Structure formats: structure tokens, C-alpha cells
Amino acid sequence: MGLPGPTHHYSGLSSDNVASTLNRGSISNPRQAALQGLDLARLLNSLGIRAAILPPQLRPNLGLLRKHFSGNNESVILQASREAPALLESASSSSAMWVANAATVTPTIDSGDGKLHLTVANLFTNLHRRIEAEDTYRVLRSIFADVPGSMVHLPLSAAAGQRDEGAANHMRLSPTHSDKGLHVFVYGADGRALDPESARQTLSASRAVKNLHHISDEQACFIRQNPAVIKQGVFHNDVIGVSNGNVLLAHEEAYDRGRDSIETIEEAYSALHPGKALCSLVISERELSVEEAVHTYFFNSQIVTRPDGGMSLIAPIEVKEKYDGKALDVMERLCASPDNPIDEVHLADLRQSMRNGGGPACLRLRAAMNETQIAAMASSVNVLATDALLGSLTDIIESFYPEQLHPTDIGNPDLFHCCQHVLGELGRVMGLPLLISE
Ligand code: SUG
Fold it and tell me: Is the pLDDT of residue 195 over 90?
């Protein structure tokens, strides 16, 4: 789970993201954003899922601002605010909270070398996201330092034309989490004339991650997004499809060959697990249009397997609030059907994040880890969302996070000092002293 930071604000930085564009210039509440994130972690815990917290990053990012201005920290921020407000907006984004874009993860059981691989996403498409990669690498290195057999890889080189947005464009399908998985890499651009300008993931990046992670050919499948839906606001696969275990829930318009693309995934799954069929739940345009899916974030739900074997859908509250609850009705029909393992829906209030286009699935990065790996992680850093950690984080958030932020407020150096202080506190509590580099 990614924790929103004290600079969470709405400056409409992602032009391909409908919510981010629509809410440009409105007032945010960073404190509420962070508390809503913690509530999501509590909900996961209540369903028997272990969650860990990834901290925010120091913003504004002075490394970026110093490429343009010089002087002490305060003077650099003030100059940027006067002379390059758009640059300051990018340098101040709290976008690292959407950790579905932090990395792509391959569990031990799936890699040819028996290692747990994580490749940090380069997030090259947008400046405000590109600057996340360096700190994400440092934080993941710290968190996984003592986890046996784990490897955190540097981001791919964007200079080689590889654009990578991490787990948001990747799905792992398997009968249970501990069976070997089929890795579905979803990309928007492959160098063909049809490539939409805004496609964020390239096929070359997906292939490079597959190779770095030693995933065999029979365990990998490369599926192209439907260019038409990218233009409608489907900037990541997780805006139009979601998976868990043997379940794939996707819109019929998600991929370039429509239902044939989904059939390709089904065939690859059955080839890997003979005698077993993928449970694919394909939502038609008539049931829920792409536009309705984009505005409700229906597919940006998390599907999780509870310890009793049943599956829960964690959906943004917008599925109930928009279009007279049409999206929630579709979910309830899925729950009532005996043909799939999903049997309940939980609604999460993540309105602060949602207004920037980040739903329940954007805020999480899934890593299938064994007990030894989890214990090793817990012995070196305090990131597992226990009641004690959630309590300490709540105290920090309630004591120091601002409750109101307009994009023009980010030019105030006090916000940087606030962020520095918060990260110092979080670093101390979470055992991650490297959070502050300035
Ligand atoms: O990259 N929004 C993010 C939302 C990311 C959602 N993640 C997934 N779908 N996995 C993005 O577009 C807006 C920030 C701003 O405008 O300040 C933003 O970056």
C-alpha cells in the first residue's frame, strides 16, 4: 500500500487521466488522503490479507528543481514558484502513492533462477512520475535487503525506448497464489503506426522485464491494449482489467483483438495448467460502457483471496455513487453467480486519491511471498501494517499533515519543511532512515 504524502494536490498533471484532468485546480486534503489509505490497509487486514506500507517521497523534489535553479532549498522553491510553476507542480506531486506503478514483481516460484524479482518502473512518460524511480529503488532495496533470494532491479533505461509503468500493466494468473503463474504483460505501444501518442507502456519494456525476471516463454503472454480505449482514459491496464488467482475480470473492449485477446490468455493458462480453466469474467459494453468504467473505476478494484478461499472485491465507492449504482449492480450480479469465486463487495472511500485517478488497485503493489521471506522483511524494517504501525502512522498524519492544499500553496517552502519533518518521523517509525536525502 502506498501512503499519500503531505503535498497531495490536484494540478492535473496527467493529461491522459480523466480524473486528474477534471479536478485540476481544486482543493485537496492530504490528511484525509493518507487516512483513507490507512483505512484501506485496515480493510485488507480485516479480510485476512497482510499489507505493508510504502512511505511517501520527499516533495518538492529538489533534485529536479536544482537542474533549473540554484541557491538554498527555500530560494530554489520560491524561484520555481515564480518562474516555472508547472515544473514546481511536477516536482511536488505525491504520485508515488500509486505503488501499482512502483515496480513489477515476480515471485520465487515463477522465476527460472528461483529468486523473488522486482523491477522498479521507470515511469518515463510523465515528468512528475519519472522522478519517483530513484527513491522507489532505494526504498525497495531497504525493504528487501534481508529477504532471502530477493533481487530489486534498477529501472529500465528509457534511453533505449523502453517505457515501463510497472504492475499496473501486468497480471499474474494461477490456480492458487503458490502455484506457478501465467504472467500477462499488457502494453500500449510496440512501434507500429497505430501506437497512440499517450501509450505509457511499450512492448519492449514488458519483454525486458520478462527476461530480467527469468520468466519462461510458456509462463508469459503479451497482450496489446485497445488503442481506442487508451484515448478514452484507459491509461493503464488496471483501469479496464483486474485479476486474482484464477479470475480475470476485464471489459470486452480492453484489448486490441477484443474477446480473441482474452481467449489467447485462456489458452496460455490452460496450456500451463492442463485440465484447469481460467475463470474469465468479461463485461460487455452493454452491461457497463468503457466510459462508465473509466468514471466509476469499476475495474480498478482489488480482488483478494481470503483465508477461507472465497474472494472479495474491494471497489471504490464511486461504483455506487455514479450512474445510479449501475457498476455496483454488475458487481453484485457477479457475487450472486455460483460460476466464480467472488462472493462479496467492500466499498472503499478513497475519494482523495480517486480525484487524481488512483483507485484501490492503484494504491497497492502485490507481492506473493512465502513465510520465510515475510519474516525476514519484518525483522529488518517495520512496514507490515500491524495495528501498532497503523496507530503510529495515524498519529503522525493527524499531527503534521495539512488539511487543505490548493496548487498555489505548493510554492510555500513551509510545505517542504513539513514534508521533511513527516518523512523523518515515518523513517524513524518504519526503520527506513534513508527517506530524506536533502
Ligand atoms: O499516473 N495520477 C496517476 C494515477 C495513477 C493510477 N495508477 C494506476 N492506474 N495504477 C497517473 O496518472 C495525477 C497527479 C496530479 O495531477 O497531480 C497522477 O499522476
Answer: no
